[in-house]
Design brief:
5-stranded mixed sheet; 161 residues; alpha/beta; Nucleotidyltransferase, domain 5; globular
Length: 161
């Protein structure tokens, strides 16, 4: 594969997806949450394709959904997005949540710790960093931005020589 310069990571949410765009493995170009009402997979894929068209990535990194806790809608979104992205010439790869967890656990980082470390590495994310989740709370939707970036970082560090 040719040199990958711009990578887009996408992580599903209940209302859309979180994304992070990283260039040259070091520059965070764009990030955010995309919501669709209603959050039907086809509508969410349209929004994701618009994001890909805007950023023209070399690679799209998705969360592997075969073995995941995500619901049917998120799984359908991932399948559709992979198909459509490939048809437009964008290379696609999927990373499992277990691979991400193992990668960051090697550094002793929990999900909350990893968001904190990413906010240190990319200070522009600090305002989007969710607070520590209490056991009775749902995950803050903003964590999807950090999940998307985690996918990209896991891929980059696992393929670096």
């Amino acid at each position: 594969m040719s040199e990958v310069r711009r990578v887009v990571g996408v992580a599903p949410t209940s209302r859309g997806f979180g994304f992070a765009v990283l260039e040259d493995g070091e520059v965070l170009v764009d990030w955010g949450l995309v919501h669709c009402r209603p959050p039907e997979p086809e509508r969410v894929v349209e929004r994701a394709l618009a994001l890909l068209a805007r950023h023209d990535p070399d690679l799209l990194v998705l969360q592997a959904t075969e073995v995941s806790r995500y619901g049917d809608r998120a799984k359908r979104f991932a399948v559709l997005l992979e198909e459509k992205a490939r048809s437009t010439g964008v290379a696609v790869t999927a990373i499992s949540s277990d691979a991400v967890r193992r990668h960051f656990a090697a550094y002793g980082l929990t999900k909350n710790d990893r968001a904190e470390e990413m906010a240190k590495r990319f200070p522009e994310l600090r305002p989007r960093q969710p607070g520590k989740r209490r056991p009775w709370q749902s995950q803050d939707e903003r964590m999807a931005i950090f999940n998307a970036l985690s996918l990209v970082i896991t891929l980059q560090t696992s393929t670096d020589p």
